[in-house]
Amino acid sequence: MYLAPCKKKSMALKRLFCLLILMVVAWSCNNDDEGPDVIQVPPQTISETIIEDDAEIKAFLQSHFYNYEEFASPPDNFDFQISVDTIAGDNAGKIPLSDQVETTIISVNTDEDVGVVPHTLYYLVVREGVGQSPTIGDNAFVRYEGTLLNGTAFDASTNTPAVFNLSRVVRGYGNGVIKLKGGTGPIENGDGTVSYDGYGIGLIIMPSGLGYFNSPPAGSIIGSYTPLIFKVDLLSFEKDTDLDDDGIPSFMEDLDNNGNLNDDNTDGDSEVGFFFPNYNDADDDGDGIPTREEIDLDAEGNFIGFRDLDGDGIQDHLDNDN
Questions:
Q1: Which of 3.40.50.150, 3.10.50.40, 2.40.320.10, 2.60.40.10 would CATH assign to domain 46-238?
Q2: Is residue 36 very low, low, confident or very high in pLDDT (cuts 50, 70, 90)?
Q3: Closest CA to 267 of 283, 285, 282
């Protein structure tokens, strides 16, 4: 499974590394006149890559369609699976995906001069689902298939559904799944298996900055700076998932309300050699007192509210000098 997010490399470090490589190449060429000339291509920046990715995605959306007619009038034994094909030949009159997808803007922090780079995430809600939508902090029970824009599959969990926390996957995937709603179930089939009904079905198309950017999974066919597509069935999800069991639902630990739980780390300065965002940290302020003991919970351990005993405007579980 390739959905785990990558950590984008520092542009400054990459440029330094590239400079060192160029110096080595230059020295080698000066000492081997018969060797071939070597040109080192520097890594792309996020701000320039998003321009290329978005143009490639838009061209794909304008030239491809999905089997919307089957979803509108399901034939017998229809498997309710999204199928994408090129608009050409007998399909020349099909409605392009560009006329059907929706978009949301996701800001990506960089260490480039521009700071924050907005990325457009494209998604298609083919069937919304009859239940509720998960939050970016919830565990989701899904079937999925990941492909490149050319249709080549690189990962799938279609026969055996998988469970992912939507903040522990690449950002485009998590932010796309929350546009869907879960179904009803599990329904016992009488043969030891279960099924779900009325679940959400969707398509997510993301630029590389919301995927793996320049750090694709080792051994995968995904190249650097590669846009991705995911077909997703949202079967169910764990409402108000508390991933670190600190008493606070994970989605509530998005302190800057930017839809990204991985950049909220109150005690990050004291975490040497590791990094625990608040949603994955049972002691958010690093004061040695578990967060669970610095908030209000009911008798069953459910979250009620925050405390600020010293009245300084900082909640106790985020205040290491309380």
A1: 3.10.50.40
A2: low
A3: 285
